[in-house]
Amino acid sequence: MHFALTDEQRMIADTVAAFVRTELYPHEDEVERLDEVPAELAAQIRKRALDAGLYAPNMPAELGGGGLDGVGVALAERELGKASYALHALVARPSNILLGCEGAQREEYLLPTVRGERVDCLAMTEPGAGSDVRSMTTRAVRDGGDYVITGGKHFISHADVADFVILFAATGVEDSGKKRITGFLVDLDTPGVTVRKAAGCVSNRGYHTCELIFDDVRVPTGKRLGPEGLGFELMNAWLGSTRLSVAATCVGRGRRVLDLTTGWAARRAQFGQPIGRFQGIAFPLADLTTELDAAELLTLRAAWNFDQGRLTDRDVAMAKLFASETLGRITDQAVQVFGGLGLMAETRVERFWRDARLERIWDGTSEIQRHIIARSLLRPLGA
């Protein structure tokens, strides 16, 4: 196996890293304080990302995107992951579900989103339907040339700044008794749609989750995304790539926090020597460095398998599980090494600690990832 990155891949990583340092890092404290990205700042970052050719890196070049392969996207997400997520998200990675757009949908939704003119959000989760997506109760009932959508979604990321939602709703029941899920493209200014911010979240300040309410919302059949009843397949396609991005983000954030913690351990003196010389500090840092390298290799292996056309759910689950849990251990140890200062806002360590906790929950909990891995082991044996 060849582990070296190509010159182009190294250039991608270096270019994104430089953008993060100059365009994102300087604004992190303001966003943390305001719990908001000011509109002018968001527009500035988005424009500079577009000018630098970094916007929509996962979308094909012929559509105006970055045209990066799986490894390239993972490297870009690794570097972006070092920054505040509210700012990271402005260098958009539109949902690849939009590649399922056909006909007029491409001009109305896909292409403007790739160009940074429109912003999408994705709505699957409901108060009673999280990991068990098929238990969703939001319904879309056919009525002539329209669907009438009723129900609600929650934990919908950045719906407060989005123009439209990629919505999944139940459109009937299969012979097996499972609900048939269908995708829709719904403009958030459609009559009957209500968007409201959810309660404040401890993680990712400035990047909000929202509730969406659909009260007899009429959506033309032309805004159905893909064939009726195949929304579950569309969701699975999206979850694979987004979980891989979560893994890459965790690796990048872990690298930033570990560098910060190691630097502190080298400078902070107690009992006449740097605390990093004490085994109680040094050995955990050594273990976490090893784990982080392993998480990165799992992530890049999954991205490489994607490029070879042989990515499996197990590959993605292993990368997302290990990288997110490694980040949790790194940030927890960072607080311990910094001591009382680790809980003070001025060191930023407590921010990394808070933000890291979410990574083990969204886009598939650690338990779901373990279920996927275990299933891959047992199914071939008939269990």
Automatic annotation (TrEMBL):
Q: Which Pfam families match?
A: Acyl-CoA_dh_1 (PF00441), Acyl-CoA_dh_M (PF02770), Acyl-CoA_dh_N (PF02771)
* Family to which the UniProt record says this protein belongs: Belongs to the acyl-CoA dehydrogenase family.
Protein name, UniProt field: Acyl-CoA dehydrogenase family protein
| Alphabetic keyword roster | FAD, Flavoprotein, Oxidoreductase
> Lineage of this protein's species?
Bacteria, Bacillati, Actinomycetota, Actinomycetes, Pseudonocardiales
Which molecular function term from Gene Ontology is one that the record holds? flavin adenine dinucleotide binding
Q: Which InterPro entries match?
A: Acyl-CoA_DH_CS, Acyl-CoA_Oxase/DH_mid-dom, Acyl-CoA_Oxase/DH_mid-dom_sf, AcylCo_DH-like_C, AcylCo_DH/oxidase_C, AcylCoA_DH/ox_N, AcylCoA_DH/ox_N_sf, AcylCoA_DH/oxidase_NM_dom_sf
Identify the domain of life: Bacteria
Using the record's annotation, list all stretches that form the Acyl-CoA oxidase/dehydrogenase middle domain.
Answer: 121-217
* Acyl-CoA dehydrogenase/oxidase N-terminal domain ranges (all copies): 6-117
Q: Which cofactor does it need?
A: FAD
Q: Which residues form the Acyl-CoA dehydrogenase/oxidase C-terminal domain?
A: 231-378
